[in-house]
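Progress note, project year one: complex with iron/sulfur cluster.
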Amino acid sequence: MLTRREFIKALMTMAAGMSIPAFCSELLAEAAGKQGRKPVVIYLEANTCAGDIMSLLNAKDPSLDRFIQETIDLQYQTTLMAAEGSQAVQYMYKSAEENWGEYVLIVEGAVSTRENGKYGIIGELADGPLTGLQAVRDLAQGAKYIVPFGVCACYGGQYATPPNPCGAKGVSEVIGSKDRKKVVNVSACPGHPEWLVGTLTHLFVYGMPDLDPHRRPKVFNGRTVHDLCPRRSFFEKGIFASKPGERGCLYKIGCKGPVAGCDVPLRHWNTFYHWQWVIGCNVPCIGCTEPGYPTKMMPFYRHLPDIRVFGSYTASTAVAKAVGAGTGLAIAGHLGASLLSGRVRENYRKLKEPLPPLPPEPTPSADFTGKQGPLQYEFGDYLGEPDLPSGIDRVPSGPKHPKPLFGKKLIQKEGPDTKASLLARQISKKWKD
Amino acid sequence: MAQKIISPLTRENVPIAIQVTVDKGVITDAKMMARNMRGFEYMLKGLAPSDAPYFTERICGICSTAHAVASCLALENATSHDLTKNGVLIRNILFVGDILQNHLRHFYLLAVPDYVDLPEKPPWTPRNRFPNSLPKPVNERIVKNYFRAFEVSRDAHTLTAIMGGRAPHQWSMQPGGATIQPTAERIMRAKAVVERIKAFVTQDYREDVEALAEAYPEYFEYGTRPRNYIAYGTLPNPDKPHEFLQPPQVVLEGKVEALEVKNITEDIRFSWYRGKNQVSQGPFYAKPPEPDRSKQEAYSWIKAVRYKGRACEGGPIVRAYLAGGYRRTNATWDRHLARQWEAANYVEMVLKWISQLKEDEPAYNHWETPDSARGEGLIESMRGPLGHWVEIEGGRIKNYTVITPSVWNMGPRAGPTDLGTVEEALIGTPIKDIENPVEIGRVIRAFDPCSACAVHVITPTRKLEPIRVV
Ligand code: SF4
Ligand code: SF4
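Model obtained:
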């Protein structure tokens, strides 16, 4: 078995155009053999676009089907599981009970906290609807580790964009302080399948990985995009793209690489061809791994107004030499500060009109109660109740669904026959006779 | 009379809830309840228009490319922007990669578990128990293909990633075209990947749908509804970027006519918005109505969208009908067969497009944000008609409206007898065993349901009451 050091080294150096799940699943299998059972995983989907599970389905070598068949014991995953309805939710709780203290809880999607979670209902229990908030807080207590997968689950992400209509929050913000110590954030939008597999392996085989201040594994998020960027030499030389689609450093058209902790410049996405990542496509990095994404990263194409140094920073090698690498870092630091304070977006908005009041910043507390007052801000006037636009009759003519129609529904025959429709007709005829 | 609520309806992208009333073994009433909300349209207010494609992509992770296309079309429409042929080709190719991925994942990963016996271990147990009428070898073959589909659908997504830089949530599609050049390497890899999945999509997929249809023939009847269809344009024409390969059309009671946006209405009577009969009419540049979560008799965040007052269905079955590829009724198997027909067709089309890419011609024509403009982007996505409407003022987004296919398909009723599309399809379906109501899932999943994209439109302004479900 690899030592932890060797493992970390392998994760970091194998990054370049190779896939890590292959050796991770071997390690996991080995560990599972020792412990006598496969690692139990409960994968919860809160308020999500399902992009993270789609991203995970794109895992390579082995693909996800083999991973869930051979390597882990996936107990609950709403996109893949066969059960539905209360059967599914009850099983989730049963499985958590049986594996209390053992399982890893993966959460995808932000947790809706508005009105105690009523904006994100993920199932139905005997005593009423089950909110995502409730499920996350329940399952977090029994989890050995909690792995929010994707930036929404980590920090609220996309859905926390002001005015944050559903009160979206990251997992860490809604669970108790004791449970918060079990969290390892696997960020990005969507989450990188390799990061998830690598993190799970580390957790099962070696325990808690080294974390950065945002509780992300340092091995994946410890270096910035800017540090690893193949266009870094363009940056140093001051060769900048002036619009998307151009070669050159994309800093001037809004690249957030200097503040994004992310090893994708080496690892790439999907099949790992060298252009399969944002800058490889000649568009600026949007910093999707960071807390505050996307609010603090928008406008994606606006280069950061606070950085005056660019006033005299032209695209000439001579200037670049004078500026040197040190300034690059200073810029990055400055940029980081202004991004983190959310000034970029505010400045942008200020240019045009006064900012709409933002919802109050959530104050994370150890015993989060999910309570939140009525919303402070008001959008949209009520438009009144106009009649139907002229020329449109609401209910189609003719009787509609008076009684159950089964048995009386007509099979309409029309249109040219294709092989498929002929076959369909044959089969349905056979069945009717 | 029994009432049953299934929540979460799993194996669909972002679980939705469904409440059915069963009387004497037959569904007499059905309510599609979308109970997760996010409120994208209000988040978009005040943003830079050029951020919209990336931002709206995140409405749905399984059809993200569709939102990028619609958003780009809306922005380009706002300034009457021209695209290069290469740009349209690349965008079409990466879009079709996503469509293929979607169709494969939808059928195998989401629908197939309703009909076959998968391995007896989680996540495939527990499950609804049903008499499996498949011969054993066929069951085995389909299970094998179920697992193969994980890889094939991933390969289909790779096509998107080759042209778009990543999947899901691609990079290169921008208002103005695509920001990558079709280099020899990209063309070669794209071709190879399509060739690799071609046999599976055109043969195995087809055989599996047919085998299932043969084993469960009653689903040639379950799920039918009046033939009211709607389709926006299917894929921009690379030779004439402002036209579609298949023009926007509707089918009303079986009659085909050209689509006019002003005939589209949105009704909120049974949705959680304040007001009783408030109806908004296309094109949708106005502000959405205020939410009201405590509204009596409302049961969904989705609004009831109608064309000339009729609930219309969108999706592959409609496109296949309009293209003349598949024209039987609209029962459960018809929806699956039409989807396969379309996937097989797209494989051919995409190969043709890849060979038309020109290495030395530009793919991107920079788009500048206008000061004030309005644009409309209508496109057929995997699940049906997707519309984005953007109003730009002072160089920023003033209003942004999205009406997704799942609003058409999964929406609630607009009146006591004016049911939503899936609701119509469910009524009349017999339920053999109320404890294992497999029929409901089978009928709904043929629509390729997805509530991720349907519920994005609102913002709360007042205190909410807890939900009561009877
Ligand atoms: S600013 Fe962006 S494009 Fe330029 S070197 Fe840094 S990460 Fe690369
Ligand atoms: S956008 Fe930037 S932070 Fe996000 S995955 Fe790409 S390189 Fe990493």
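Confidence is low (pLDDT under 50) at residues 305-330, 343-415 of chain A.
Residues A 188, 225, 260, 262, 264, 277-278, 285-289 surround iron/sulfur cluster (ligand 2) (CB under 6 Å).
No further modelling is planned for this target in the current period.
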